[in-house]
Amino acid sequence: MHLETTRERTADMVSKLSKLMLWMNSGCNARCRMCDIWREKPGRNLTVADIARWAPEWREVGIDTVVLCGESLMHPDVWPVVAEIRKQHIRVELLSNGLLLSRHARDVATHCDVLRVSLDGPRAVHDRMRNVSRAYDRLQSGIAALHEAFPAFPVDARCAVHRQNYRHLSATVDAAKELGVRSISFSGTDIHNEEAFRRFETIDQNYVENLVIGPGELPELERSLTLLKNGHAADFASGFISDTPERLDELLLTYYRSLSGKEERAIQCNAPWTSVILEYEGTLRPCFPMPAYESRPEGSTLLEVINSPSALAFRRKLDVTTNPTCRRCVDQSVNPC
Q: How big, in percent rounded to 5, are the helix, strand and coil portions of the chain?
C-alpha cells in the first residue's frame, strides 16, 4: 500500500516546466463583452524585485517561454520586468489588445520575441466587442508603428469565435490582412468557467445566451466555415490562417456542438503538469480555468508550491478527458515535458 502511494505521488510530482503564463497586473483598458478583467481596479502589480527574485528559478526548472498575459502594457514597469526575464535567456511572448501598442512599439520589438493581438472581427465588430472607442484603429496604428521601426517583427492575430462574430470569419481574415499581421488563428470562446477571465458570479443565462452558438445556429456556423475554407484556400495553404481546415472544424464546430450535447470532444492537454500561471498577487494556478493552488508561503519556491500535498492531490485526481472544466475549456495545451 505504501509503495503504491509513493509511486502515485512521484508520478504527479513536477520537476520540470516548459512555459509560464505571467499575468503581472490587475485591470484592463478594454471592456470586452466576453471578459470581466476590466472590472478589476488597476494598480495591483508584481514588482521588478519580485521577478528578479523568481526568474532565476524559472530557468532552473526548464521554463524556456514566458507569455505575458492580461494587458501587460498597463504595467508601470513592464520593460524593467521583461529585462529581468530576458537576463535568464527566456523567450518572451506578449499577448495584447493593442490599445497601447503605438506608445510601446519600439520596446515591444526590442524586448519581446513575438506579439499576439486579439482580433474580434472587422472594424465594426471588433469595436463593438472591445467596447472602447476606436479599438480597431488604435490596434492598426500600433501595428503600423511597430512595423515602421521593425518591419520583420512577427505579429500574429487571434480571434475568439462566439455568437456575436461567427458570421464574420472571412471578413476577420480580411481584417487581419489589412492590419498587416503575419498570421491569424481561431478558437472557441470560454462560456462557462468562472475562474477564467474573472467572471465570478457574472455568468448567468443572459451572459451565456449572448455568446454561445446554440443548436439552432450550428448549421450557420458550418456554412460560415465552408465559406472561409472556399474563399481563403490560399491563406490556409500559405499558413496565413495557421489552423488547418480540419483543425478549425474541431476548434469551433465540434466545440460548440459539444456544448449543445451533440458531439463529444477529444481532450488532449498536459498543461497542469508542464506549465503554470503566475498572477499579480503571487497566486499560482495549474491553468486559467482551474482554481489556484494554495497561497505561496514566504520564501517558498515555485516547485514547492506546485508539489504541495494539495497540488499533488489535485493532479492525481485530474482526468482531463472527463473533468467538466476541461471539457468546456477552449485552450487545450500539449507542452513539451
A: 45, 10, 40
